[in-house]
Amino acid sequence: MNFQFKKLMQSAAVIGTAAVGLTACGGNNNSTKVSEKFPIKTPVKKVKQGGTLKIAEETDTPFTGIFSNEIKNTAVDNDIASPGNESLFDTDNHYKFNDKGPATIRLDRKNNTAIINVKKGVKWSDGKQVVAKDIEYAYEILANKGTQSQNYSNSFENIKGMKAYHEGRAKTITGIEMPNGDNGRQVIIHFDELKPGMEYSGNNFFWETAEPYHYLKDVPFDKLQSSDKIRKSPLYFGPFKLKKIVRGQSVTWVPNKYYWRGRPKLDKIEISVLATNSASQAIKSKVYDVAQVINSQWEQVKNTKGVNFVAKVPLGYNFIGFKVGKWDAQKNKNVMDPHAKMNNKALRQAIGYAMNTDEVYQHYTHGLSFRVPTLIPAQFGDVFDKNARGYSYNLKKANELLDKAGYKKKGKWRVQPNGKPLTIRYMARQTDPTQEPIQQNYLQQWHKIGLNVKLIGNRLTEFNSYVTKLEGDSHDFDMCEIGWHLDSEASPSSLYSDNSPKNYTRFVTKKNNELLAAIDSQKAFNHKYRVQKFHEWQEYMNDEAYAIPEFNSYSVFAVNDKVTGYSLKPSENNNDHQLWYKVGFVK
Fold first, then answer.
1. Which of 92, 199, 286, 401 is in Cβ range 3.0-4.6 Å of 350 for a Cys bridge?
2. For 348-382, what is each residue's pLDDT tens digit?
3. What is the pLDDT of residue 431?
4. Which residues is 555 bridged to in the sheet?
5. Residues 463-484 pLDDT 10s
């Protein structure tokens, strides 16, 4: 639910990206219509050759620097890799695959196959042609347990042999065929069945990138993440190659002389970490050529001269998730605990109704962040349930729910229905400067209904520590705020299924499994049926409240008005990576 990959959002106020390619479901795709507030691209002007583009990466924590699509997990790592990192496929504005990218793809429903052909001349930055084995190898990195990839999900097990490889019962993935050998340019992927949405990027039934097998083959899978070949000197087939990295702080990219689309306009791209509380001053001082606006700082920067503000509403959202189980690594499944502290629907719903989200984001972001009513963004067209109300502020209803469920007050705080004390440990990530007052506000709201909710460690959690706790299934928290950048195909299976590692709340129900299966079933090739199942899933999830939808935001960028070719349109990106070879300075 970029973006090809599900990624944890770094900022609560700056949201970049499952909206599906809405036409994948036959709906109207509004992904290129933000609002009359902002254009989606810079003015088109004649571009000159040369120059250094300086980009700010706003984060209050060092980046991890994992230059591997299969292993990385954060939006920040995705951003700093973007000058070199290209997907195999380009799309139109509805995220439908076209033939303009490094490779083409054709689906054969009769034989349940996808046929991928890499274009001749698509080369890694060391000059080697991208070949079939590079595509197969990416699947091996994704699925091999040694890499501990958080991007693997059961959705990929529709590929024949994938599950056996993932479980270590096979040394190869039998469903990946290379008709012309390892060094050919064609790959045929064999599926148990084709799925609705496979014509669209981000469908999570097949992977959309390749990795340089010739370069990485000698690195054991369990050493890849720490390898210098991943951390310091990665190979990409995009327009730029990595020249220099200052660990956790900055990267410098120079042109890949083997780039298949031709020489980029720029001589260099420099991306540097910028603390969020310094973002507005940096924009006003024009220290960077491209910098994302921290939405809470909009009033400080909106009148800046010499910049163009471009924006989109990305495919993404934040939500409040409740921990109700654990991840069983042996079985590759989420296991729900019926006796978990937060496994009470009334308690979860009350927490949602006590949140004054509309008021909060109008106050702190001037409306650039806004409450969302479901876990499917509106950009996905008719699969989004426009009648969903979500959790608007209703303190009276919150109290009534708790009273009826037996959470009685004993002094200041409510106790559990069994009479035992109730303390709820809440993990919220450290992001921009407004995060502290926003989360303190929510604590006060929950205290108003008698719930003793406390931040773990009595403070916001540093982002890298937050990711470690979330992915490590830490027992330190009972509920947390989670943000997703989403893929461009709307199916929520890879985030909320019973065997998705990213189902961080660990809820598992028969009804949820049935609805997710229906959304991606053969019957769902019937658009009306698929829409119906999407709506049923949203209604079910809102009622059960294991994941309470919270907010989404405009992504606004301040771009030097001497820069042209910068666009947020899907057709002018590659898997939501800016096509940096087009970007340059005005003549």
1. 401
2. 999 999 999 999 999 998 889 999 999 999 988 89
3. 82
4. 312
5. 899 999 999 999 999 999 999 9
Question: What are the tokens at 280?
Answer: 């507005």
Q: Average pLDDT, stretch 440-464?
A: 96
Q: Are 40 and 34 in contact (CB under 8 A)?
A: yes
Convert the pLDDT of each residue in 100-115 to its tens digit: 999 999 999 999 999 9
Element (H, E) at 402: helix 395-404
Spatial separation of the C-alpha atoms in residues 324 and 478, rounded to whole Å: 8
- Of the candidates 417, 415, 283, 414, the one whose C-alpha atom is nearest the C-alpha of residue 339 is 417
The alpha carbon dihedral of 169, 175, 179, 181 has a sign of negative
Q: What pLDDT, on the 0 to 100 scale, is given for residue 75? A: 85
Residue 503 DSSP symbol: -
> How far does CA 312 lie from the centroid of its chain?
15
Beta bridge partners of 41: 567
Q: Which amino acid is at 203?
A: N
d(CA 76, CA 250): 11
pTM of the model: 0.80
Task: Spell out the alpha helix ranges (H) of 449-577.
Answer: 463-471, 493-496, 510-519, 527-544
CA distance 237 to 216: 15
pLDDT tens readout for residues 494-522: 899 998 989 999 999 999 999 999 999 99
Under 8 Å between Cβ of 335 and 326 = yes
User: Bigger pLDDT: 203 or 125?
Assistant: 125
**Residue whose structure tokens are 């349109």:** 569
User: What are 443's two structure tokens?
Assistant: 């604590």
Residue 356's closest CA among 443, 481, 445, 426? 445
Mean pLDDT of 238-243: 97
**Contact indicator for 267, 52 with CB cutoff of 8 Å:** yes
Amino acid in the structure at residue 578 = Q
State the amino acid at position 370 in one-letter form: F
Instruction: Name the strands in the sheet holding 47-48, side by side, starting at the edge strand that comes first in the sequence.
Output: 47-48, 584-586, 563-564
Of the candidates 336, 388, 390, the one whose C-alpha atom is nearest the C-alpha of residue 551 is: 390
Residue 18 has pLDDT above 80, yes or no: no
- The partner residues of 558 in beta bridges, in order of sequence, read 291, 309
Cα–Cα distance for residue pair 88/94, rounded to 1 Å: 17
DSSP code for 224:
T
pLDDT class of 141 with cuts at 50, 70, 90:
very high
Q: Is the dihedral of CA 505, 506, 512, 515 positive or negative?
A: positive
Distance CA 216, CA 231 (A): 12
Q: How far is CA 210 from CA 103, 141, 231, in A?
A: 11, 10, 17
Token pair of 417 as six digits: 């229905």
Nearest of 309, 373, 343 to residue 554 by alpha carbon: 309
**Is 35's pLDDT higher than 70?**
no
CA dist., res. 494 & res. 482, Å (int) = 15
Helices vs. strands in the chain: H and E counts, helices first: 15, 27
Phi-psi region of 62 (alpha: psi -120 to 50; beta: other; left: phi over 0): beta
Q: Which residues pair with 38 in a beta bridge?
A: 35
State percent of the chain over pLDDT 90: 80
Residue type, 162: M
